[in-house]
UniProtKB/TrEMBL annotation:
Organism: Nasonia vitripennis
UniProt keyword list: Coiled coil
Coiled coil: 2-29
Phylogenetic lineage: Eukaryota, Metazoa, Ecdysozoa, Arthropoda, Hexapoda
Protein name per UniProt: DUF4806 domain-containing protein
Keyword Coiled coil: yes
Length: 155
């Protein structure tokens, strides 16, 4: 009984020490893509998403967004990855679901299948948006495999 109590106390002490290191800045396992988006970056992202078929907003067209995601400086692409990662989800599928809601409307989604084999649909996997969503999921869930991500997008 005393032995179990001592083990629990030692485990709590280790956890407490780890939390102290994190709070004091001793935790250095952060990635450069873990940056927070500024309000200006979020405003730019929101200007282009969710992609819609409505002709009133020309910025929210798939070809405009694809062009923005393909620019050479990659800043918009990286900000979009961080934006989609921030949508959150308790697992890979839930994150993809939340990202898809933020990325495209149902009308646009109905124009695509993952591989594009279902006539008259286009291939979603060939879009830069798919690559962006893929990287957001891999950033949030590094152990997620390609099949999990593909199944999440297909759902």
């Amino acid at each position: 009984m005393v032995f179990k109590l001592i083990n629990k106390v030692n485990r709590l002490k280790r956890q407490n020490d780890a939390l102290k290191r994190k709070l004091e800045g001793g935790y250095r396992n952060t990635r450069s893509t873990d940056k927070q988006l500024s309000l200006q970056d979020i405003a730019v992202i929101n200007k282009y998403f969710a992609i819609d078929t409505n002709t009133a907003n020309k910025n929210k067209k798939i070809d405009v967004v694809e062009n923005m995601l393909g620019k050479k400086d990659q800043e918009f692409f990286q900000n979009a990855v961080i934006f989609f990662k921030s949508k959150g989800g308790s697992d890979c599928r839930k994150l993809i679901f939340n990202c898809m809601i933020a990325a495209i409307t149902n009308e646009v989604a109905n124009q695509y299948s993952f591989t594009g084999r279902k006539a008259p649909r286009k291939s979603f996997k060939d879009l830069r948006l798919c690559t962006c969503l893929y990287q957001a999921v891999k950033l949030a869930f590094p152990n997620a495999n390609d099949d999990d991500i593909k199944d999440g997008i297909n759902a």
